[in-house]
Amino acid sequence: MQIAEPLLVAIEELSKxxxxxxxxxxxxxxYLLKSNGEQFESLVKALEDLKAKIKFCERCxxxxxxxxxxxxxxxxxxxxxxxxxxxxxxxxxxxxxHEYSGLYHVLGGVLSPLTGVTPDSLxxxxxxxxxxxxxxxxxxxxxxxxxxxxxxxxYLSKLIKPLRIKVTRIARGLPIGGDLEFADEATIxxxxxxxxxx
Length: 198
Fold this sequence. Notes:
This protein is an alpha/beta fold. The chain folds into two domains: 49 residues, Helicase, Ruva Protein, domain 3, CATH 1.10.8.420; 129 residues, Dna Topoisomerase Vi A Subunit, Chain: A, domain 2, CATH 3.40.1360. The protein is built from eight helices and seven strands. The chain has a five-stranded mixed β-sheet with strand order 4-3-5-6-7. Strand 5, helix 7 and strand 6 form a beta-alpha-beta unit. Helix 1 crosses helix 2. The protein is elongated.
């Protein structure tokens, strides 16, 4: 069966998105093709703005429109606590719980020697420099409970403990091998409230 080249290209590009297979990509492409011009242009503009206007916070590496993200600029946040997460999606997941009022630090991944992710690939040096300037009393490790997350947590705890800063980890309310961003709000909230020493 022959498919028009622009439609074929659109299906191919959409299928590159996470969790989007060829059939879903085809349905999305056909939906976009049928949508009115205003709806289509609105989506295109939103995607262009996403790429053009969003950058990383220069302090915590969360997503932001400005040099500092909304959380880092918020004077009401508890500056004595810094929660270390893998990705910005984890910040969103924790914020939805309304159980945490401290700051964050986004590593941009976890250690994975097999795929070439080393400490230099992550925002670990930036975090240690940040600790020199800020008066954090507690570092909360909120990394996914999988092999790479555990290895990263252990590595970080060995770097932080000599600084005489309390290191805790979120409670084990999350399934082993699961991703933080896919857990429900109640589970993440309970995990934050019941964190323990690492």
